[in-house]
Amino acid sequence: MSNLERFGVSMESDLLERFDTRLAERGYRTRSEAIRDLVRQDLVNEAWEQPNAQVFGTVTILYDHHAHGLGEALAALQHDHHAAIVCTTHVHVDAHNCLEVIIVKGLSRKVRSIADSLIAAKGVKHGQLVCSAVH
Ligand code: NI
User: Fold this and answer.
1) What contacts 33, CB < 8 A, 6 or more positions away?
2) Averaged pLDDT, 88-103
3) Is pLDDT at 9 greater than 90 in this prediction?
4) How far, in Å, is the centroid of ligand 1 from the Cα of 83?
5) Which domain holds residue 39?
6) Are 57 and 132 in contact (CB under 8 A)?
7) How many Å apart are CA 66 and CA 77, to the nearest integer?
C-alpha cells in the first residue's frame, strides 16, 4: 500500500449526516474507507470514459432459452469476440430462464460494444454491464 496521507474535509452538516447514514447502511466502519471507495469509483468511471483505456466488464444477462435462435446468437457473439471474452458462467435458473455472467476485457469502447450487443440481443429480458478497471 502506498503512503497514507491525511487531509481535512469541510462539508455541510446535513450532507455529512446523510453521508454517515449511508455509510452505516452499507457497513463502512470509517468515513475514510468510504471516501477512498468513492475516489476509486470516480477513477474507474474516468477510465471507462476513455475509449482506449484497458478495462474489465462483467455482463449479466437473463433470457428465456426457448426464445428462437437466442442461445445460438449469444454463443456466436461470444465466439466472434473470443479474444476479449475471459469466461462465461451459465446458470439454469428454472425450466425457462438462463442467467449468464460474461467477463470481458479489452479497450473500453470494444467491451462496451460487446456488452451492448449481448444485452440488446432479441429475447434477452434483462442485462447489465458492470464496469471495472485497474487504476
Ligand atoms: Ni440454461
Assistant:
1) none
2) 97
3) yes
4) 23
5) 13-49
6) yes
7) 18
Q: What CA–CA distance (Å, rounded) separates 123 from 68? A: 8
Q: Are residues 78 and 40 in the same domain?
A: no
Using 50, 70 and 90 to split pLDDT, how confident is the model at 1?
Answer: low
Residues 60 and 43 in one domain: no
Do 68 and 17 share a structural domain? no
- Nearest partner of 11 among 43, 45, 34, 40, judged by Cα: 34
What value does the mean pLDDT of the chain take?
A: 95
Segment 11-33, tens digit of pLDDT: 999 999 999 999 999 999 999 99
61 and 30 in a single domain? The answer is no
User: In angstroms, what is the C-alpha Rg of the chain?
Assistant: 19
- 39 with 91, same domain: the answer is no
Query: How many whole angstroms from 115 Cα to the centroid of ligand 1?
Result: 19
Rounded distance from Cα 121 to ligand 1 centre (Å): 16
Query: Which pTM does this prediction carry?
Result: 0.84
